[in-house]
Amino acid sequence: MYKKKLFFSAVLLCSFFTCFSQNDDSVLIKRISDDILLNGKAYSNLYTLCKSVGQRLSGSAGMYKGEAWGQQALKDAGAQNVYLQECMVPHWVRGKKEEAGFKTHKRGMDPSFNVLSIGNAVGTGNAGVTAKVIEVKNFAELEQRKNEVKGNIVFYNYPFNKTYLRGAYGDAVRYRSGGASAAAKYGALAVIVRSVTAATDDNPHTGALRYNDSFPKIPAVAISTKGADELSKYLKGNYKNDQFYIRTNCVMLADTIGHNVVGEIKGTEFPDEIITIGGHMDSWDPAEGANDDGAGMVQSIEILRAFNAIGYKPKRTIRIVLFANEENGGRGGDKYAELAKTKNENHIMAMESDGGSEYPRGFGCGMTKAQFAKVEPWKKYFEPYDADKFSFSEGGGGGSDIGPLQTKFKTAQFGLSTTAQRYFNFHHSAIDVFENVNAQELHLGAAVMAAMVYLVDKYGL
After folding, report:
1. I need a surface site. Which of 28, 68, 228, 418 has the fewest CB within 10 A?
2. In 98-167, where does DSSP find H-type helix?
3. Which of these, 124, 115, 295, lies nearest to 205 by C-alpha position?
């Protein structure tokens, strides 16, 4: 009987301390969240970034202004150590405004269309490209009509699939990234690509392409969704045999020097165990890069500020990284992992925010099954914030900038997941501006990120 009482007493004691510990974690997470929601600086930091720096395309003057802003923002957030990591980045320049439209003897260039050169594309030269337009819906149709392509312009009119609540971007972006080389294989002179967005407006969306060196490099432009619908209509009507004119002035210059901007606070117990959190500095040139990825940067910086504000001393080193060149090269993420490998650093976790500023829903978790088994019970801490959707992927799922850490170190990764229903309306277009970011949503994303960082810091993986 005595042994039984002793056993039950031990069980109750363990249960008490477990409940107390969980309670303690909930209280601390709420303290962090409350501070961010009531006193957060992410929104004001984003305003400064967008309005005083603006676009930050790799190699541009804006990139260097952004790096200076990042260093100051990290210092203001209380980073103990702020420094730059040099890396070579591509230097693509858009040049003068692009032109596109039907060219007839009677009307000059009428109607015209709003287009943007796709990033990394070659330009047309001063003479432009004048040819007939061949509309295709997908790569399969391109293959079927390959004999019609030579000497003409290929128009990929592949719509964003609105029935895909997740994955529509990945489905449609292949025409932007690989469409030029696929058409060049059959002798096309240029390509026009329907913008990768569900929005119906006159804002073309740029982004990067990748040339296949086996085929000629040809000019590529994105056309707005409204423009794509109109162009398709004209090609089925009186303009189907008319000549179309495209002129772009973009050029790829020699690589130049860019930097990852890094700020950290050292861990009190395990300073050699590093938790990396970040977003990317560069953005496309038509706008301010507010959602992509100004939001991710200011959310990451906010974690550092909030920890300092409530007096939380992390056990492990918390390192914020504003990555260079995610958009058209990925050089910053590669350099960060390369330097970490050279220094033989111990990276136990990495987190990225690169999905815009909408309400957080949870995390993509790229890690081992054993690590996810430890993380999954933490969902209860995220239920009050409606951010308890954890998706598991063994060997992926964090993000492109922190992906190289997983390759080199098998580092556990978290990618912040948002509702992402408006993000691709703004993405890579002229309307990715500060005014299209909601302060509450932005700060709630930072709070959710901070909660996960706290749990990993306290319990490890």
Report:
1. 68
2. 139-144
3. 115
Q: Residue 265: beta bridge partners?
A: 318
Q: Read off the pLDDT of residues 201-223 as tens digits, 9 standing for 90 and up.
A: 999 999 999 999 999 999 999 99
3-18: string of b/e by CB count within 10 Å (b at 16+)? Answer: eeeeeeeeeeeeeeee
What is the rounded radius of gyration, in angstroms, for the C-alpha atoms of the chain? Answer: 25
Q: Give one DSSP letter per residue of 35-73, joined into a string.
A: HHHHH--HHHHHHHIIIII----TTSHHHHHHHHHHHHH
Cα dihedral across residues 329, 333, 337, 339: positive or negative: positive
Residues 6+ apart with CB under 8 A from 279: 293, 294, 295, 296, 297, 298, 299, 300, 322, 323, 352, 353, 354, 401
Mean pLDDT of the chain: 94
CA distance 391 to 243: 49
Q: Which of 67, 98, 326, 352 is catalytic?
A: 326
Residue 336 CA: distances (Å) to CA of 65, 87, 198:
21, 9, 34
Coil/strand/helix, residue 113: coil
What number of residues does the chain have?
461
The residue whose two tokens read 């992509």 is: 292
For 7-25, the pLDDT digits (tens) are: 444 444 444 344 445 589 9
- Catalytic residue at 86? no
- Show the domains of the chain with their CATH numbers: 32-88+255-459 (3.40.630.10), 96-253 (3.50.30.30)
Of the candidate ranges 44-48, 98-102, 107-111, the one whose mean pLDDT is the lowest: 107-111
First-to-last alpha carbon distance for the chain, in angstroms, is 40
User: 231 with 208: CB under 8 angstroms?
Assistant: no
- pLDDT tens track for 295-351: 999 999 999 999 999 999 999 999 999 999 999 999 999 999 999 999 999 999 999
219 backbone dihedrals φ, ψ, rounded to 5°:
-60, 150
- The tens digit of pLDDT for each residue in 255-294 reads 999 999 999 999 999 999 999 999 999 999 999 999 999 9
User: Closest Cα partner for 248 from 161, 118, 153?
Assistant: 118
User: Which SS3 state, helix, strand or coil, does residue 398 take?
Assistant: coil
The pairing of beta strand 99-104 with beta strand 108-112 = antiparallel
